[in-house]
Request: fold
Amino acid sequence: MKTDNSSFERVGEFKCLGTTLKNQNSIPEEIKSRLKSGNACYHSVQNLLSSRLLSKNLNIKIYRTIILPVVLYGCETWSLTLREERRLRVFENRVLRRIFGPKRDDVTGEWRKLHEKLNDLYCLPNIVQVTKLRRMDRWTERVACMRDSRGAHRILVGKPEGNGPLGKPRLRWEDNIKMDLQEVGLGDMDWFGLAQNRDRWRVVVNGFP
Reply:
């Protein structure tokens, strides 16, 4: 492949700045890779997370400052389906159960893992909400305000040529932005024009999730 008098080898995938890029733009594979790195990070500090010498708040800070950034590296450009969101939540819940530990059943007296009560114990935005916030705050506004000649802007507004594969179209990054706006009651808004107004966009982001 040649561009600007330079030649590049065509490959199926390559790693750039810590992110694995594939010729099919497979976000699930990238999330799988990030979760693998997150698991390695989690196992390196899991004894700290369950230590009684540290407070729960300190353990949560360890998770959010050491583990979470590893998993969500580059998440601003992800296009998430419900399946990927579920995978992220499963990972986070496993870490949170390690932090909060088991709970004794008031009736049977047996110890059991926490499930539904994790949301009550962990009051901060969950991993999916953090992903959406970063996508809205760190990337959408910046790309929308770029000059038309910038590569990221051209990719965002460009339309691919040719016919796509048969079946249901894959979820685009733009589709996620529209769904995010629906969550704050702005699903009918022109997100591109809205993001170009920094003050109005800041109000949207501050109201999410």
